[in-house]
Amino acid sequence: MDASVSSSMASSRGGDVPSTVQVALRIRPQGNREKLEGSRVCTSVIPGEPQVTIGTDRSFTYDHVFDQATQQVEIYDSCIEKLVNGLFDGFNATVLAYGQTGSGKTYTMGTAFDTGAISEHEVGVIPRALAHVFRRVSDLKQEAREGGILEPTFEVSVQFIELYNEEIIDLLANDRSSSFNIRIHEDARGEIYLHGVTTRQVQDLHSTLEILKNGALNRTVAATNMNEQSSRSHAIFSLHIKQQRVVPQESEPVISQEIEMELLSAKFHFVDLAGSERLKRTGATGDRAKEGISINCGLLALGNVISALGGANGKVSHVPYRDSKLTRLLQDSLGGNSRTLMVACVSPSDSDFVETLNTLKYANRAKNIKNKVVANQDKSSKLIGELRGRIAALEAELLEFKQGRRTVGSDGVESVNDQYHENVMLTAEINQLRFRVKALQETNEILRNRNVDLMAKDLGPNGCSVSSPTDEHGGSSDEANSSASNDAVMDPVQATVRKYLEELERMRSQLYESQAVANQLRKEMNKWKNQALGCGGFMESNDNSFTSFSHQQLIEDARADIERLRRTVSTASNEVTSDYASHADTAEEDGTSNDADELDEEDEYDQDVDEDTVFDEDQKGAALRDNLADLQTEINIKERLIAELERSDRHLAEVRLSYEKKLTELSAQIKKMEAERDRVVMEAEAKKSDKASQEQAKRIREEYERKLADMRNEFRKLQMVEREHKRMQARQERERQELMRYQAELKELKRVKVDLMKKIKEEMKKAQQQQSSASKKLAALDKEARRRDNIIRQLENKDRQREQFMKRTTEEINRLRKAQKEQAKQTRLAATPKMTPMRSTPYRPARTPGVRGQPPPEATYSPKQAKMKWTFIEKKISRLVTQKQTVGKMEEELGRLLEERTRLNEEIKNLEHRFISLADVSEREAVADQIDGCQQKIRYVMDQITETQTAITDMDGGKDGDMENNDESTELSNIEGLIEHCSNLIEAKYLMQHLFNACLEHAVAAAKADSHNKESEARIQQLEQQSFINEQLLSTVIADKNLKIQQDMRNGSFFTRVYRKVLSIFPRQNIV
User: Fold this and answer.
1) Of 263, 538, 255, which Cα lies nearest the Cα of 382?
2) What are the residue boundaries of the Kinesin motor domain, all occurrences included (predicted)?
3) Among residues of the chain, what percentage have pLDDT more than 70?
4) Selection from 100, 107, 62 nearest residue 351 by Cα
5) How many CB atoms lie within 10 A of CB 94?
6) Residue ranges of the binding site
């Protein structure tokens, strides 16, 4: 067995194998509610490519991407099946389902047992994996029985837990109170296990599915606005397999060999994470809100772990596994000993655009995580496997020594044996000789076919020879004279072609040999099939075109001439070719050599070439490769010449056919005219001899006149048709001009429409700007009203901050004085002759006692560098905050637009119902106009939604690009790197102090803004109450006034008061 194979097997069984986390993306189909709301699909998948595009131009690439129409079985066969097969080799596995609430995670995992009966194609990952496991167990036992070895033994157990509000709950326990005793532990190998969890031993698929179903029904679920069956906890279903089997033999089994057993163990975690959710969208309150907060906290901790493990710089520092129980439970799956697959489930609707984008970014970071996968086997089995691999490597090395490939000298140094090189050279020579034999056989076959062709060609149309003037085949002198007379009548073009044919015929044998050798060399030189032009032409035409020598054979010979040019590269080949050419010319001048002599000469030539070229093939190969480009250029020129020859051949054939056709037509006309002449002469003679034939002449004249009249009628019809055709052309021209005019008008209308749409958008923007300006004015007035109160509160806060700062400064001064006194005391006790000044190492004794066993920092503290780092951190934080605020505003705007689209869809539905119920045509038209207006508004809103989504992706993409394309050093790549790579403790304390001060300032500002918000809310509530009271008072006053007016109108006094009021305003004369 090969040493590389055995070593790879040993490493895969015993050593660490790096394995990145695989990420699969699944896009669920749109729901009925989303379709009714008018949500559009914002994701697109390239067929056959693992890439998804969200929005217009933001793309993500994963290991697997499944579109909306993907079935459960396709996901399992593509991603999960190989993980299940790895269980039986001792490799751990994890499938992690992540996504927003309602994205199909529980459906994909297959734990939704509370929805009734499930069809076969809807069965999820976990039931399919369980069926695969038990089927694989049966197959392994059957294979062992058929192979005559001891059957392996399996022990399969399952666990099912959920993480609800950071509490681990055993879903298989009969008493839920026992879940309080569950603890998370870590063994000596660093693997995580649970103490106090119920473990069920299973034997078959049916009982396992029952356990899975009972646990799934015990899981905590609740209804929200986004999902009627929302999982409120993280669920983990664990499958543990222990097997004891016979060690597979890597070589032929030996009867006397003892049977070795190995013990393998593996576990498979199926993790169904609860969906990330926003309380505003889910509408959760009370316990549901607490559950959502707990779920988001766990997913945030999981995201921090993924970010730490999949950093852009590839360095893993501290991984916060202990921030959450979820990350602690998944410690083996993320960065540990496990083959992990993350299934990211997303929604295709644009109403979930932000959640889908966050999920895609979350999954994209997980691709960079690398796990260290190692087979789980006991130490004795592992040692035996390593020794077995070492033995296989040594056996392979020993086999090389036996074959003579390696030798060991007297000094113990290994070297390669010369005999091995000689064997390699002889093998290459044998292969070359085989190629030569094959080439000679092909040449012999071509020459035999050529002889048959020449024998058939020598016989002309009447037994006359057209190939040579000799009477080699028994031709008489008359035949020779006939051939000479035929040659005399040939036109110049045919004579030129014949001369070229005779010239190429002399080179024919050389060309065949060169073409055969070229074919073999092409196969040997990287199989350049595209260069095999000449050989293919000859081999394909042997069966059909050797009956007569035509222009097609001339073209094929020219193609073979191209291949002859290849052989001119090598000097030896030039000499051999020139010798053979002279030999062939001599044989042609003799004219009496037969086919057997030609074949003998070819054999002798081939033997000479074999002796001269077999041992020089290696040197010639390099020269051939160097001159291949020059040959290709010359070949292209020859190909163009061949194309010109083919075109001239076709032109000559066409000219010949045209002249033959004209001659035939002229001959027929002459014969017809002669016959007409004879007939007329005979009729004239008959008229002279017989006067009684005048009636017949009259009848003939009438017949001719009738024919002439018919021809004139036909001519007039043709003229009418021509005039009609001209009229049709004129009308078609008018229609074409009219069509062009319509197209121009349509183009102008489209342009006007675009301008109108732009004006509408501008007007709407102006209205929005006016509205925003009015809102700003109101806010400014409100702000001015609160300004005085804010100034007082700010002064009070500054006083408190000043007091706190003075207190901290006093404490720090006292601590430093105490440290200085201790240092002076230690210096006096030491009483050394050389004393270091106090200012050379400030604060060092106060900073180093906490660090034991570590050398002092080598670099000195630089205030300028520390200040530069803090400036970078401050700018980085400010930029990130600005981007976060911008994205938040865009997300709010996107939510507002989605709500506006939903409102417009509802309005359109109401208008459609109203349109159906109305019977009046005018009212129906008015409603139709309203529907059209709403549809235009929806289109505008959809455009705004698309623009907002594109802006969000662009903003997020710019942020990622900034992180990836940063040109700073590794220690300046992020804030954590800056703090971790500080030169000394003084610099780290400087940065931490500034970070603490910045956090304190932001906390104070946040508290101040929170208090302002609370005051504003209280004031708004008070104003609303006051406005409500005023409205009630106003309505009461209006009601009383109306009642009084009605009473006055009943008494008649109302009109009297009105009349008096009018007279008081206008004099009587003006009224008249």
Assistant:
1) 263
2) 20-369
3) 56
4) 100
5) 24
6) 99-106
Q: pLDDT, tens digit, for every residue of 145-175?
A: 888 888 888 999 999 999 888 888 888 888 7
Phi, psi (deg, nearest 5) at residue 134: -70, -30
Question: Which residues have CB under 8 Å from 920's CB, separation 6+?
Answer: none
**Count of the separate structural domains present in the chain:** 5
The pLDDT of residue 546 is 35
For the purposes of burial, counting CB atoms within 10 Å of the CB of 366, is it exposed (0-12), middle (13-18) or buried (19 or more)?
buried
- Domain boundary pick from 424, 447, 470: 447
Beta bridge partners of 406: 416
Q: Which helix (H) or strand (E) holds 43?
A: strand 43-45
Q: How far apart are CA 760 and CA 754, in angstroms?
A: 10
Cβ 980 vs Cβ 317: under 8 Å: yes
**Residue pair 185/195 in contact by the 8 Å Cβ criterion:** yes
The pLDDT, as a whole number, for residue 913 is 84
Kindly report, residue by residue over 102-114, the tens digit of the pLDDT: 888 888 988 876 5
Residue 214 lies in a domain: yes
453 inside domain: no
Whether the pLDDT of residue 185 is over 80: the answer is yes
C-alpha to C-alpha distance for 438 and 1035, rounded to whole angstroms: 114
Residues 666 and 700 in one domain: yes
State the Cα–Cα distance between residues 473 and 491, nearest whole angstrom: 27
Owner of token pair 């300004």:
787
* Domain contains 533: no
Let me know: does 118 contact 69? Beta carbons within 8 Å.
no
Distances (CA, A) of 116 to 102, 109, 112, 119, 250: 18, 16, 9, 10, 50
Please tell me the distance from the alpha carbon of residue 716 to that of residue 419, in angstroms, as a whole number.
101
CA-to-CA distance for 102 and 29, rounded, in angstroms? 11
For 1013-1027, b where at least 16 C-beta lie within 10 A, e where not — what string? eeeeeeeeeeeeeee
In Å, how far are 444, 502, 814 from 580, measured between CA atoms?
16, 19, 110
Binding-site residue ranges for ATP: 99-106
